[in-house]
Request: fold
Amino acid sequence: MKGLMIGVSIFWGFASGIVITTGVLAFINAIGIIPRLATKCQVTRHYYAIANASLVGIILGTVFYLWADWICLALPKPLVACFGLAHGIFIGCLAMAVAEVLNVMPITKSRLKLKRGMYLVILSFAIGKMVGTLFYYLYPGFY
Reply:
């Protein structure tokens, strides 16, 4: 009976993870991050490869997050910095896509009475996210 309960728990957790991962990827696709990045990078013919890589990344991220106590990887700091940079780019793209969908930037521009230089505000958001992510990954447990 105990083995059956463990098996059901594993199956239930795996199924829930697939549903959550699919929902996250659908949300990312719905707000247009992957198609827009593919267009900007001029690799639209590789759209499905980019979408699949995003799916694999979300799944691996979820696995590493949930089983952080069991999976202990001794990675060199430059590799961790690369992961942090990639994570920062992803979070920055996600934040900017959500901000664009919600029309946050035009409202911010009008409230701050900016005539020009909005790209500096966007760049500062991206750099702040990148620095925060790198700090988080390079100095774990600091907070």
Q: What stands out?
A: The first helix runs from residue 2 to 30.
